[in-house]
Write a structure and sequence with these properties.
The protein has 15 helices and 19 strands. With 480 residues, it is α+β, with helices and mostly antiparallel strands. The protein has a single domain, classed as Alpha-Beta Complex (tRNA-splicing ligase RtcB). Helix 9 runs antiparallel to helix 10. The chain binds one DNA strand of 6 nucleotides through helix 9 and helix 12.
DNA sequence: ATGTGC
């Protein structure tokens, strides 16, 4: 099937329903950014997703779209709970990879003179890199299952965080469908010593500051102000989530055949949401999602402790409140208005962020009037953005927006291009102190390997599916 | 993304 693409308006492109597609594909992007993905499979993947049974509304993609396992990264797809499917490829290997943002009462001048020591402290306190594990903190099976069942509230109960954190996490930091019984022993084994570890790749903890405010009123409601120090934590469910994905892909390959679902690509393997296979994946995915929420909560605790050690002041006094925590690799059961009626749907967001509008009951009380905070990290050398969900997102994208910058270069290409360069030194000259765990981490994560996140943000802001609130600038980063 | 592989 040759992909035909038609421009709808300045920021939207249509793949009209054709062949085996049940519905259209719609990509939020610009013609310039489309050029960057013309040689990969991502547009074909948007069309492929539209061929899956029970899809409701268009197969959507965000401006940070690039090729992924089966579904594109940057993809959003909604499925009917009775006739639709659920697919591990629509969630991604890193189940509930996500981002959280902490505020503070500090300003950038407080940090600049001490950034190296502060980042070193974080690097020491938070296990980082491939296979990172905690030496002091290995859970037994019973405790781990409690984590998988209860999510972030388990951490709060153990003293890793504040009770006020919970209401500032998507879904309250716990997906209720979680059932650890459907998480394999192998996945459990991998998870036991990984709670509170950062991992590798694009995962990071970043100390930055608010460089620009676009909406004073909304920024103020979130507790953000110009030059304020912020902390972003970006990580997911580590080896546990990866193993859950792996295990259930094997099941889904058989299930798709069993239920007579014809797949344009094996990587789209799936099962009806209502089938035992679908329900088991949903329960295991939710358990892995809860592990990821708890992981970010534990890291938050150690970030607060690091700041306390460093500034000899309590985290409460330092105002290190959690602004919000978003998932960007997840399938959620949500109610949306579709063709004038309330409909319960399974929304797959793979490299896409929920962006619920003001007034939505799932937006925490503190943000009910302004809308759900949307957290979009860029690459380590440029910016990150804070946005807010909109009514238009509810109408057009099942309350979804982009998740990041999106790579333009493979890890391999990046290594080839940056050979012989001292990336840490280059970053230091730009005023950013970086500590990377792996031998190739910094080189794989160079700015040039990513789109400029600003271009991505301009699309979602101008298309109206989220609204810019603030731009953050990194000062210090720890990378896996 | 990953008890990656470059």
């Amino acid at each position: 099937m040759e992909i035909t693409l038609r421009q709808i308006d300045k920021y939207r492109f249509l793949i009209p329903k054709q062949g085996n597609m049940y519905t259209d594909g719609i990509i939020y992007t610009t013609s310039e950014m489309l050029e960057l993905i013309k040689n990969d499979q991502s547009l074909k993947q948007v069309a492929n997703v539209a061929c899956l049974p029970g899809i409701v509304g268009p197969s959507l993609a965000m401006p940070d779209i690039h090729e992924g396992y089966g579904f594109p990264i940057g993809g959003v797809a909604a499925f009917d709970l009775e006739t639709g499917i659920i697919s591990p490829g629509g969630v991604g290997y890193d189940i509930n990879c996500g981002v959280r943002l902490l505020r503070s009462n500090l300003v950038k001048e407080d940090i600049i003179p001490v950034i190296e020591k502060l980042v070193d402290t974080l690097f020491f306190n938070i296990p980082t890199g491939v296979g990172s594990r905690r030496k002091d903190f290995k859970l037994n099976q019973t405790e781990l299952k409690a984590v998988l069942k209860n999510g972030a509230k388990w951490a709060i109960k153990q003293g890793f965080g504040w009770s006020t954190d919970l209401e500032h996490i998507e879904a309250g930091g716990c997906l209720p469908q979680a059932n650890p019984e459907f998480v394999s022993n192998k996945a459990l084994e991998r998870g036991k010593a990984q709670l509170g570890t950062l991992g590798s790749g694009n995962h990071f903890v970043e100390v930055g500051y608010v460089e620009e405010i676009y909406d004073e009123k909304i920024a103020d409601a979130m507790g953000l102000f110009k030059n304020q120090v912020t902390v972003i934590i970006h990580t997911g469910s580590r080896g546990l989530g990866h193993q859950v994905c792996d295990d259930h892909i094997k099941v889904m390959l058989k299930a798709a055949a069993k239920y007579g679902i014809s797949l344009p690509d094996k990587q789209l393997c799936c099962a009806p949401i209502s089938s035992p296979e679908g329900q088991k994946y949903l329960a295991a995915m939710a358990a892995a999602a809860n592990f990821a929420f708890t992981n970010r909560q534990m890291i938050t605790h150690w970030v607060r402790e690091s700041f306390e050690q460093f500034f000899k002041d309590s985290a409460e006094e330092l105002g290190l409140d959690l602004i919000y925590d978003v998932c960007h690799n997840i399938a959620k059961i949500e109610t949306h208005i579709y063709q004038g009626e309330n409909k319960r749907l399974c929304i797959h967001r793979k490299g896409a962020t929920r962006a619920f509008a003001p007034g939505h009951p799932e937006v925490p009380a503190a943000y009910r009037e302004i809308g759900q905070p949307v957290l979009i990290p860029g690459d380590m050398g440029r910016y990150s953005y804070v946005l807010i969900g909109t009514k238009k997102a509810m109408e057009e994208t099942f309350g979804s927006t982009c998740h990041g910058a999106g790579r333009v270069m493979s890890r391999h290409q990046a290594i080839k291009m940056a050979k012989g360069r001292n990336i840490a030194k280059e970053m230091r000259q730009k005023g950013i102190y970086v500590r990377g765990a792996g031998r190739y981490t910094l080189i794989e994560e160079i700015s040039e390997a990513y789109k400029d996140v600003t271009d991505v943000i301009e699309v979602v802001h101008n298309a109206g599916i989220s609204k810019k609130v603030a731009r953050l600038k990194p000062m210090g980063v720890i990378k896996g």
